């Protein structure tokens, strides 16, 4: 189908339509557990229909058809609803309710300051915002810059924030609306995911829903097949521990729902509290836990070492978005017998590209994943020595919202086929597995050699005294850029090792030019709530640390 709209078939799907079909088959099964609230599939269906009605009453839905030319790949035929929320039932209801109204939900990073928030709301063209009360003060700073806003729905989160002028309480809007079954749902309806903006301004990745479901979530089969499978999986209970504002977590939630499962949210979704996550897994008999690599796994393991939890129902641990190193995988399997680890390699622009298990750091590519040459003109073969670009072929995003230039650059046509190239550099090994080197945007050029930050970070965190590490480059008269390690200590590990000890540790696994020239210790390595490294912060620390 190659990412082109208009190719719907019996095996091409829409998220809201699938949720409606599964709800009709298992209406009394728990659909979501969050914040002390338990809602069945029937209840979530009713509430999302009501939310859709509230949006429609405010004029939020599909945009009028355009005369003449069809929508361009970087354009959206929908109105957009910004979801400015912590994890909770309102977030997932917001996604479904927007789709049922003919609109599309847009993820918003709740850590943004006012100028960043204004940028995303303007860039996305949001006409409605669903937000937690805690974020009302920041939103209040920018609403005057957004003349196209038609609806503000404020969620009472116990923060005591007053209702913004012109806003409605989310709970009242849902309760007052009359539910109506959605009409016109199509696989051609769009799904939008804004990137994190860690290496530039955030961009809205624009997918057909049919392509998103197939490529990112692996949804296959007819509606009947999917509903039958969902009916047979009564015990699936999944806890996405990362924020829904990032793709990995809400992809996990949508995937659980399409499997007929229950989505569970930890008691305090405003931060990563390992004790809270594990206690929720124990209490709710969670069978699948989503995390973000070592930044989430390490504190969870430290908590497991300190306290006992009954995790006998936990069978799957799914990770993505950051490296899950082999030593950490081994510790997880030792601490949770019978655990199956699914380490996923992918991105907002590509969906799922490769998977690694507990026994290896090598990734086995999906059938649609390919490696392109340095100049992006040809596909590499297994065993080629060239460092290439990991790409996805076939059912890929339509483009970046409102940005034809970046659309052309990120989704090149090679041998007549559209590809998605998110920026990961890899080698395609002789056995067909992928050796992930790192993201090109955080590669450090030192003395004419390219060093991938993630490779060095994995070696640093393998030291028993290192709790977390981010690697950055800083200017150097001799090398152009020199590598600096910014690290925090592992809890209870004792005295910090000397620089000489750290260099010796690194030299056992890295070529000399990859060994950091300096080691900076901090109380805490700064990461996003989804576990992604803040490389701009790390560079500022590296530059301010001085020379060794």
Please supply descriptive tags for the structure shown above.
nine-stranded mixed beta sheet; 548 residues; disordered N terminus; Luciferase, domain 3; Rossmann fold; five-stranded parallel beta sheet; alpha/beta; GMP Synthetase, Chain A, domain 3; 16 helices
Verbal overview:
Strand 3 (80-84), helix 3 and strand 4 form a beta-alpha-beta unit. This protein has 16 helices and 27 strands. The chain is globular and about 70 Å long. The chain is of the alpha/beta class and 548 residues long. The termini are far apart. Among the domains are: 15-28 and 39-220, Rossmann fold; 362-438, Roll (Luciferase, domain 3), CATH 2.30.38.10; 447-544, ANL, C-terminal domain (GMP Synthetase, Chain A, domain 3). Helix content is 30%, strand content 25%.
Radius of gyration: 23 Å
Mean pLDDT: 92
Strand content: 25-35%
Query: Tell me about the biggest sheet?
Result: 9 strands, mixed
Would you identify the regions where 5 or more consecutive residues have pLDDT less than 50? 1-8
Structural class: alpha/beta
Number of helices: 16
């Amino acid at each position: 189908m190659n990412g082109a709209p208009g190719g719907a078939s019996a095996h091409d799907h829409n998220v809201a339509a699938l949720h409606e079909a599964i709800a009709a088959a298992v209406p009394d099964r728990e659909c979501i557990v969050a914040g002390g609230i338990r809602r069945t599939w029937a209840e979530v269906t009713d509430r999302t229909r009501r939310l859709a009605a509230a949006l429609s009453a405010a004029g939020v839905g599909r945009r009028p058809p355009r005369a003449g030319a069809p929508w361009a790949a970087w354009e959206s035929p929908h109105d957009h609803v910004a979801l400015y929320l912590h994890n909770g039932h309102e977030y997932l209801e917001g996604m479904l309710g927007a789709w049922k109204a003919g609109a599309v939900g847009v993820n918003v990073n709740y850590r943004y300051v006012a100028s960043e928030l204004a940028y995303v709301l303007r860039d996305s063209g949001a006409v409605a915002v669903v937000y937690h009360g805690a974020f009302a003060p920041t939103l209040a700073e920018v609403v005057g810059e957004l003349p196209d806003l038609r609806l503000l729905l404020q969620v009472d989160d116990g923060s005591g924030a007053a209702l913004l002028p012109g806003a409605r309480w989310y709970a009242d809007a849902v309760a007052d609306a009359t539910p109506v079954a959605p009409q016109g749902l199509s696989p051609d309806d769009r799904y939008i995911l804004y990137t994190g903006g860690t290496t530039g301004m955030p961009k809205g990745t624009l997918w057909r829903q049919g392509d998103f479901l197939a490529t990112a979530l692996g949804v296959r089969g007819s509606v009947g097949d999917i509903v039958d499978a969902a009916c047979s999986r009564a015990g699936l209970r999944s806890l996405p521990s990362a924020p829904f504002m990032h793709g990995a977590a809400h992809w996990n939630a949508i995937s659980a729902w399409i499997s007929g499962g229950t989505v569970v949210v930890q008691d305090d979704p405003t931060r990563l509290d390992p004790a809270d996550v594990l206690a929720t897994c124990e209490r709710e008999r969670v069978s699948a836990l989503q995390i973000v690599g070592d930044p989430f796994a390490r504190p969870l393991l430290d908590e497991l070492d300190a306290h006992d939890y009954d995790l006998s129902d936990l069978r799957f641990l799914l990770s993505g978005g950051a490296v899950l190193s082999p030593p950490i995988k081994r510790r997880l399997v030792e601490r949770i017998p019978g655990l199956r680890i699914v380490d996923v390699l992918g991105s907002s622009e590509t969906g799922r590209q490769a998977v690694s298990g507990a026994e290896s750091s090598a990734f086995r590519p999906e059938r649609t994943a390919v490696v392109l040459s340095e100049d992006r003109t040809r596909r590499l073969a297994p065993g080629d020595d060239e460092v290439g670009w990991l790409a996805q072929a076939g059912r890929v995003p339509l483009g970046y919202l409102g940005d034809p230039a970046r659309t052309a650059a990120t989704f090149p046509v090679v041998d007549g086929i559209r590809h998605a190239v998110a920026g990961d550099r890899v080698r395609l090994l002789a056995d067909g597995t992928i050796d992930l080197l790192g993201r090109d945007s955080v590669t450090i050029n030192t003395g004419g050699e390219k060093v991938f930050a993630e490779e060095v970070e994995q070696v640093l965190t393998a030291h028993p005294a290192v709790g977390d590490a981010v690697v950055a480059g800083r200017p150097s008269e001799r090398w152009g850029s020199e590598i600096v390690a910014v690290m925090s200590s592992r809890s209870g590990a004792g005295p910090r090792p000397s620089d000489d000890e750290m260099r010796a540790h690194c030299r056992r696994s890295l070529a000399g030019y990859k060994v950091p020239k300096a080691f900076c210790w901090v109380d805490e390595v700064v990461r996003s709530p989804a576990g992604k490294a803040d490389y701009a912060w790390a560079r500022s620390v590296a530059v301010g640390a001085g020379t060794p």
